[in-house]
UniProtKB/TrEMBL annotation:
This is Oxidoreductase. InterPro entries: NAD(P)-bd_dom_sf, Sc_DH/Rdtase_CS, SDR, SDR_fam. It comes from Streptantibioticus silvisoli. NCBIfam families: PRK06523.1. Gene3D superfamilies: NAD(P)-binding Rossmann-like Domain.
Amino acid sequence: MTQPPGTQAAVDPRELAGRRALVTGATRGLGAAIAARLEAAGARVVTSARHAADGPVAGTFVQADVSTADGVRRLAEAALDHLGGVDVLVDNAGAQTRVPDGVLALTDEDWLNDLSGSLLSAVRLDRALLPGMFARGHGSVIHIGSNAARWPQPAAVAYAAAKAALHAYSKGLANEAAPHGVRVNVVSPGVIETSGLTQRLAALAAEHGGDLDAARAEFARTFAIPLGRPGTPEDIAETVAFLASDRARYTTGTVQVVDGGLLSTL
Ligand SMILES: NC(=O)c1ccc[n+]([C@@H]2O[C@H](COP(=O)([O-])OP(=O)(O)OC[C@H]3O[C@@H](n4cnc5c(N)ncnc54)[C@H](OP(=O)(O)O)[C@@H]3O)[C@@H](O)[C@H]2O)c1
């Protein structure tokens, strides 16, 4: 029996004590859940996004656009100023341009938007922060990839290609980082229920008597998700917290698929 969504595994509030974490794209969705989970495990956390959050979120917020070189530079400096070093880096912010008219309708601007937001954002931030991890001889880097890297959806091919590149880059980086005691892994989510999907599900539920869980189950049947529901941001945060911790001390260069069984291949 899997744990129902919304419930939490017991968190050891000391597991990440003394660790300093930076999470990008953390004012909502997966990033907000990841920041909260790392903080609950005792880490000091800096979060970032282009705009401040509507409500309270974990950590200390730095406003920065990680799709630009200047935004990454300012974020890295602010995080180092605040934390004194970064032990856990979660490159979570991504960019997805949806073009319904097919791959050939994607413009250079669309491609550059997705490559800057989903690939170069991580490359640049890693370049700024991994030398410090190497010098200290430890660190955990987690890139939030996507199942789209292996299963491109027609309306978002540039995004899928950028995530595939992120997965490949992560493997190469993991090989170089390992001798320095630094681990690099990818978490590859399937369909996760962030606010946009909740709104779609609420509309679906309204058509069927208002039962949101029934709408989730219907959605899962339609998209053939074996575990019978979309994922939650907390499902992803749990795997990120594991990879950040010493429990994952022998895990590097991997892609951890967290998708309720959605990908039909190994
Ligand atoms: N949700 C899913 O089903 C799913 C599935 C597979 C993979 N993923 C991946 O998981 C990651 C998080 O997705 P999500 O669904 O949680 O997204 P989301 O709910 O749209 O949240 C995105 C977060 O990133 C920030 N952000 C976006 N662009 C940014 C930029 N250029 N610089 C700094 N911050 C930026 C946003 O704040 P601002 O807008 O204020 O900047 C927000 O805090 C992404 O990499 C996505 O590709 C998600």
